[in-house]
């Protein structure tokens, strides 16, 4: 596992969050919007969204139809608008408009699960976190980095705990980034490019 991760560190020496943001509020909103769409598409709509609603108070007071018009290209825009307005209202009313740091407080917000909270904690606050998305699930499973790799629908929290136990906390955020980048670049869901994979010599799933 650690030898393979060392290779990923060479391939992706300076991993960064693919979502564009200037502050924790923007990252939180962008991460909520990224569900079931691509980061690239999210980045295409957030400049207009943040120009119109720069903080939680402004977004909480927004006309839902206006927000829907901006985020419509992302799909599921009705549900995502409800999440954003509920999220903004909670931030404005419960946290004085500031994004909280703790996992419990973040996951108490509408539309915010553990993965989103880990993204915000790791990238906005530099608090160790290991976001587990579909790329992380797929890559760690194919590499047999976790014991439940053979289970079709593994528990993301269990995966987070098992992988984090193998790496120091200061690596967790970049570890997640590198696994995601590898999943996007090479270890694709349907047809992984095993011939070009830098891990094909040791990956048990390589073909």
What would a concise description of this structure say?
The protein is an all-alpha fold. The chain contains eleven helices and no strands. Helix 2 (24-33) packs antiparallel against helix 8 (114-124), helix 5 (64-71) packs across helix 6 and helix 9 crosses helix 11 (172-185).
User: What distance lies between the first and last C-alpha atoms, to the nearest angstrom?
Assistant: 19 Å
The biggest sheet amounts to: none
Average of the residue pLDDT scores = 96
Large-scale geometry: elongated
Helix-and-strand structural type: mainly alpha
Low-confidence stretches: none
* Fraction of residues in helix: 40-55%
- Give helix and strand order, one letter per element, not per position: HHHHHHHHHHH
What is the percentage of strand-forming residues? under 5%
Please count the helical segments.
11
- Computed Rg: 18 Å
Number of strands: 0
Keywords:
elongated; about 210 residues
Write the layout of secondary structure elements.
Layout: H1 2-11, H2 24-33, H3 39-52, H4 56-60, H5 64-71, H6 77-94, H7 103-107, H8 114-124, H9 134-142, H10 156-164, H11 172-185
Helix pairs in contact: 2-3, 2-8, 5-6, 9-11
Tell me what you see in this structure:
The chain has 207 residues and is mainly α. It is built from 11 helices and no strands. The protein starts with a helix and ends in a 22-residue tail after the last helix.
């Amino acid at each position: 596992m650690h030898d393979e991760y060392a290779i990923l560190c060479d391939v992706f020496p300076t991993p960064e969050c693919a979502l564009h943001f200037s502050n924790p509020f923007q990252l939180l909103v962008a991460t909520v919007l990224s569900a079931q769409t691509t980061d690239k598409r999210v980045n295409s709509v957030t400049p207009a969204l943040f120009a119109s609603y720069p903080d939680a108070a402004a977004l909480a007071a927004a006309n839902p139809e206006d927000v829907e018009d901006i985020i419509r290209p992302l799909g599921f825009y009705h549900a995502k608008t409800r999440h954003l307005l509920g999220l903004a209202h909670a931030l404005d009313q419960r946290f004085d408009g500031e994004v909280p740091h703790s996992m419990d407080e973040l996951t108490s917000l509408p539309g915010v699960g553990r993965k989103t909270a880990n993204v915000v904690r790791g990238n906005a606050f530099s608090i160790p976190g290991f976001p587990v998305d579909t790329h992380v699930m797929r890559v760690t499973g194919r590499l047999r980095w976790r014991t439940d790799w053979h289970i079709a629908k593994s528990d993301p929290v269990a995966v987070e705990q098992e992988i984090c136990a193998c790496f120091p906390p200061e690596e967790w955020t970049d570890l997640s980034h590198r696994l995601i980048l590898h999943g996007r670049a090479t270890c694709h869901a349907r047809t992984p490019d095993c011939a070009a994979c830098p891990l094909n010599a040791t990956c048990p799933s390589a073909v």
